[in-house]
Amino acid sequence: TTPKYVKVKDEATGIEIVLPGACSQKDFNSARKYKAKDSDVFVCSYPKTGTTWLLTITWLIVHHGEEIPKNYTDSIPTLEFDGCENIEAIDDGEFPRIIKTHFPYKLVPKNLKAKYLYITRNPKDAFVSYYFHVRGFNSVYHWKNPDLSNLYELYIKGEVTSGLFFDHLKNWYAHRNDPNVLFLLYEDVKQDPRNEVLKIAKFLGDEYEKKLKMDDGKILEIILERSSFSHMKGMSAWHTTYRPENEPFIRKGVIGDWKNHLSTEQADGLDRALMEHGKESGISKLWDK
Ligand code: A3P
To answer: Where is the signal peptide, in residue numbers (predicted)?
Structure first.
C-alpha cells in the first residue's frame, strides 16, 4: 500500500506537486493567491529537515524568548494548508508574521523585503524521519501497511509530498546568496545552536540580535533552552494527531539515525542521487565536512 497523497497543479506555472492527503486543489489555489508582505518571515523547507525546529527558533527570536503558543497553528500558518484568507487574518500587531511552507522555491510568494529562511538536512536522515512521519500521521496519510522499502521507492523518484528532495534543495540552494534568503543546515544547528541562533537573529534584523545580547545574553539562553530537543519534546503544542502507539512528532533529533534503519543499498542510492544532482548545482558538497 502507499500513503494517501493529492496531486495539485499550479495553473500559472504548470508546476504539479504532491501534497499530504488532507490538502486540496482549493487550498492550494488559495495559497497561491497570497501576496507576501514586506514584514513577512517565511520558514521554508523540504519536509522532515528541521522545519519545526527552525520555526520555534524564529518564533522565539521574534517574540524575545516568549514560548510558542500551544495552539501554534492559529498564530503560525502553513501556506499550503491555510490559504490566503487565513494567513491574512493573522495579525500579530507589532510582530512580523511567520509563515511555514514546504513549497518549492518557484511557488513561494516573493517580496524583496520579506525574509526567507531555508533549512535542509542530509537526505538519508530526512528520509528516515519522513518514514516515521508518514507512518505516524495516520489521519492524513491513511497508510495501512507501513513499509520503509516501499516508501523508499517512492521517495527516490520524488513521488512523495513536496516532490523530489534533491530538486527542492537545488532550487533553493541556487538562491542561498540572495540578500533576503538565509540557507541553513540541520547539522549546523545541532552542532552549534548558539552560533546558528545568533546567525538567524542577525539575518532577521539588528534589533533582534541586540535584544538577544542584552542582560548578559539572558534572552539568548532562554531561546537556546526553549528550542532544545528535550524542551521541545515535552511541549504539548507538537502532540497532534499521531498514532498513539508510534513515535511522536519530535522523535529522535539526531544526526545519523539512518544507520539504524537503511540498508546499504538504500543508503548508497540516496548518496548516488545526491552526487548526481550535485554535479552542477553544488549540493553534493553540503555534507562534506
Ligand atoms: P527525527 O524524526 O529524525 O527525530 P520537520 O519539523 O521538518 O518535520 O522535521 C522533524 C525532524 O526534526 C524530526 O527528526 C524531529 O525530531 C527533529 N527536531 C525537531 N525539533 C528538534 C530539536 N529541537 N533538536 C533536534 N531535532 C529536532
So the answer is: none
How far is CA 167 from its chain centroid?
Answer: 15
ipTM, interface predicted TM-score of the complex = 1.00
CATH of the domain at 195: 3.40.50.300
Looking up cell 497570497 gives 34
Host domain of residue 110: 5-285
Choose which residue among 231, 251, 260 to substitute to test ligand 1 binding: the one with the highest number of ligand atoms within 8 A of its C-beta. Answer: 251
Query: What is this structure's pTM?
Result: 0.96
Is the C-beta atom of 48 inside 6 A of ligand 1?
A: yes
* CA distances from residue 184 to 42, 50, 116, 265 in whole angstroms, order as listed: 13, 10, 11, 28
Number of folded domains in the chain?
1
pLDDT in tens, 210-268: 999 888 899 999 999 999 999 998 887 776 655 555 567 889 999 999 999 999 999 99
Locate the ligand 1 atom nearest the alpha carbon of residue 232 and give its number: 23
